[in-house]
Specification:
By secondary structure, the chain is α+β, with helices and mostly antiparallel strands. The chain folds into two domains: 3-62, Orthogonal Bundle (Arc Repressor Mutant, subunit A); 76-240, GAF domain (Beta-Lactamase, 2-Layer Sandwich), CATH 3.30.450.40. The chain is built from nine helices and eight strands. It has helices spanning 3-18, 25-31, 36-48, 76-94, 136-143, 147-154, 159-175, 212-217, 219-240, and strands spanning 52-54, 60-62, 97-104, 107-114, 130-131, 178-180, 188-196, 202-211.
Amino acid sequence: MSGRGVERILDLIEWFAATPGPVSLSQASAALALPKSSALQMLRTLTDRGYVLRDAAGHYSLIRLPGEITATGDSRGALLALAAPLIAKAVEDVGESGFLAVMEGREIRYLNKILPTREIRYDRDMSMMRPAHKVASGVVILANMAEREIEAFEATLAAEEKEALRAAMDAARRDGFFMNAHGVVEGAAGVAAAIFDAQGLVVGAVNISGPQGRMAEASERVCAAALATARAVTDEIRRRVIRPV
């Protein structure tokens, strides 16, 4: 597709986003000053890709924007885009570092980090993955997985690790979050709460971390912020998901 063709597709999507209700081919053609044949080709492309829905009367409606989560699966790009502003607000409110975490195999990967504007703050090497059972994000994700998946994860753990994980998961299920007062990094503590998709499956976690002393002093506030942020991200996912028609 030429550069002009890309621009026209984007113009059409932006026009759809600002236009309430279903529209006809003639309306789309006139609004963008396009030949009907060109407008029809673009509408067909957007319909085939799941961005636009054509109803029985032949009218078109925008049903999702590029990058948004669909009913057939989730997108990490969409998850990042939805979570980032909400995590940023939590970081501003509590003054500690915020992270978006997902589970890959038996480990936790951090997809982004948002640091507070203060001189002494907790940072994290995003290239390093963490054993899921040793970090707060892993605990809350595991706590919301199916029992068979949990048992498979536990199969290689030592007895004391399994016992500690079970206790941590019980706390996460009870409270909706889990606070690890003594993190993997010496002197750090973290709290996490799980993010869910439209089907109720866990897809990641919001993590807030900082120096142990500050986290202990503000534990109630940071735990509430992590839980509220994870719930807000979940709500955004569920609000934007496109269900089959």
